[in-house]
């Protein structure tokens, strides 16, 4: 099984940006969901 590392090089920055965005947005989203459910 031959893996093409060019795919990894392309996906790595996208995955890193996605992980950073999720880590920034998740706490705010949880607060909003809790506030919505508390109504």
Automatic annotation (TrEMBL):
This is Photosystem II reaction center protein Y. Pfam families: PsbY (PF06298). The lineage of its organism: Bacteria, Bacillati, Cyanobacteriota, Cyanophyceae, Leptolyngbyales. PSII is composed of 1 copy each of membrane proteins PsbA, PsbB, PsbC, PsbD, PsbE, PsbF, PsbH, PsbI, PsbJ, PsbK, PsbL, PsbM, PsbT, PsbX, PsbY, PsbZ, Psb30/Ycf12, peripheral proteins PsbO, CyanoQ (PsbQ), PsbU, PsbV and a large number of cofactors. It forms dimeric complexes. Residues 1-6, 26-39 are lumenal. It comes from Phormidesmis priestleyi ULC007. Keywords: Membrane, Photosynthesis, Photosystem II, Thylakoid, Transmembrane, Transmembrane helix. It is a single-pass membrane protein. It is found in: Cellular thylakoid membrane; Membrane. GO terms for biological process: photosynthesis. Belongs to the PsbY family. GO terms for molecular function: manganese ion binding. GO terms for cellular component: photosystem II; plasma membrane-derived thylakoid membrane. The keyword Metal-binding does not apply. Its main location: membrane. InterPro entries: PSII_PsbY. Transmembrane segments: none annotated.
């Amino acid at each position: 099984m031959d893996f093409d590392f060019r795919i990894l090089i392309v996906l790595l920055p996208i995955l890193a940006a996605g992980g950073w965005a999720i880590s920034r947005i998740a706490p705010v989203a949880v607060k909003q969901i809790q506030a919505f459910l508390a109504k």
